Amino acid sequence: MPTLRALSVAALLTVGATSAMADTTLTVSNWLPPSHPIVRDIIIPWGEAVTEATDGRVKVEVMAAPIGKPPAQYDLIHDGAADIGFGVHGYTPNRFSLTTIAEVPFLGDSSEALSVAYQEVFEEYLAGANEHEGVKLLALWTHGPGEIYMVASPVEDIADLKGKKMRVGGGLANIVAERLGIVPVSAPSPQVYEILSNGVADGILFPPESVPFFKIDTVVKHGTEVPGGLYNTSFFMIMNEDTWNGLSDEDKAAIDSVSGVELARRAGKAWDAADAAGRKTMETSGVAQTVASEAFVEEIRGALDGIDSVFIDAAAAKGIDGAAALKALREKAASGS
Hints:
CATH class of the largest domain: Alpha Beta
Largest sheet: 6 strands, mixed
Number of helices: 12
Number of domains: 2
Strand content: 15-25%
CATH architecture of the largest domain: 3-Layer(aba) Sandwich
Shape: globular
Number of strands: 12
């Protein structure tokens, strides 16, 4: 039976109203503030759903203090430092080649539609490649469409981006940035205020939610939204394999019932709501927000032409029909599957 990892109860945030007599307590490694939508609106409600689905036999607790940096989360869970964790595939370059399917440009404006489509397409086309070897994959999702935010000057065409240093979150977004003439600056999201306020970067590629959450609405002055999204970021949520294997078949089935597509849908809804709130906060903060013109969008499409091959070629190397998988993703996301 899984046991509480090596942290005192005082160092944990209890998820939901759970029974003190729960048979199993699962710990979640967390590297974000507890008020972040991932924690508040995705992880905590999922933990409550797990407790309900298992009739109180399993409860979930979120660690109050980080046990490692964001890029280390996958290995921390794999090695048993905590039972459950989440992270960004792009924080560990060259490790997850197939998750770039959800990071290509122009996949849509809804995180919910894309996240559900991503989970479904992953299960149908990509799971067999076993890129998440050694852990139990609970779900995948993406944040909302990635946009352009600048400290000093607006962006109205590609020329305005040439040579600009911009924080990029890794994965395919780095290639998108390079194709647009941007100089990528890599840093986990909790560090973005520092690099922008200190002039290390001229701007950032970010979803709307993240601008006010990380308080950079006090630093950036201009935002340009690209219809369909300039990029997306792929997230994972995983469980330690020994922890998973130690659960009863009944509890495994119960956890599965609130994970997978259901967890992806929960995550996408939460992110869409957070993006809407983020836009309103930016209006109050005085961030000038515009939508890219048709001419600018066509410029972007031209610069990014052929970028799908990053995923399609990686899929081919693993015996997967990447073109078919990407077509299915686009169709499902467009239909709001």
